[in-house]
Model the fold of this input.
Amino acid sequence: MSFLLITLGMAALIYGYPGWRLIPPAQLPPPWNLAAWLVLVLVAVLPFASFSLRQHLDGIWASLFSWFTYLSLGFFVLLFSLLALRDLGWLLWAGLERLLPLAQPLSPPDPLRRQFVLKAANLGTLIFALGVSGFGFYHARRRPRIDQVKVYFPDLAPELEGLRIVQFSDVHAGPTIKKPQVEAMVAAIEELQADLIVFTGDLVDGSVEDLRAQVEPLVRLRAPLGCYYITGNHEYYSGVEEWLAEARRLGFTVLINEHRLLLEGRLLLAGVTDFNGGDHHPDHASDPAAALGPEPPPDAFRLLLAHQPRSIFAAAQAGYHLQLSGHTHGGQFLPWKYFIPLQQPYIEGLHLHQQTWIYVNRGAGYWGPPIRVGAPSEISLLTLHRA
Done:
């Protein structure tokens, strides 16, 4: 119930605030004013109705409905953020005018001039929000960029020097991410010719029945040390057991709080379930320590795959050398990047947590709105080196 109330409250802000700031100042004739509010309410309801309505739509209509719903949602989130920042700036300036004599206006306020300025500012904000949405759409839909990362360890075994690991994460195949985008990701990974390929959760947003064909290109992935898969939170929303079976069919080794020894025991590759996996499946409580097994080789390099960055606390305590995570999407776009630290210790990139390195991948896809601003999609190529 609390989650529903929070969601409804956020929706009221995201759609209601732009409506309040844009529609009344436009001074539309009564019929057009009513029409504007009705359209706004309809667009606001779409994200909530989409889950049930998509089941009754087929083919092109389902696709068009999804695109309109998610694009409009992304646009309104950006519009809300820009309007809120603008209005906050105006409030600060109004406060300065009252506090500082030098900021006092030379003449009384002109209501007509204020009205004109507000209309012009509203139009400018609308145009800017559309431009940012288009920019974000382009970056969300383009082929993920390759981020090459070198990680140094003081006691790295000679057998691991130069080991190349490809990490990809958060594909989110579903309503707007289809087979062509997955094929582009696979092609990019194949070009890197890595020693090891790992996927760190959130492959899909939908059932195996609906999305098997969309993720089929993943079957082409091959690496000398294998391809490995762990669950993210979205696997649990989409039928986790069915998707784990599908991941195995695609050629991945699934790690459920367990590990594999590679390179004659020099590399211990462990994987855990999603941080909240135990809330959805009785046997999927995430446990980095248990993933090491009762007697892990003392000299092995310990690499952990954990979907959420906040697994780093348990990983560091268990003595892992490196954790690879995803989940955050790097914030994806304004304003979410500034809320992630409320839940996760790291947003993106490479960080040293106590004695354990963690790399947070921004994701190869996106969730919800097909928009990325300031957080480009990525496929990571990590190379291990001796310090």
In short: DSSP finds nine helices and twelve strands in the chain. The chain has a mean pLDDT of 93. Residues 2-139 form one domain. The radius of gyration is 24 Å.
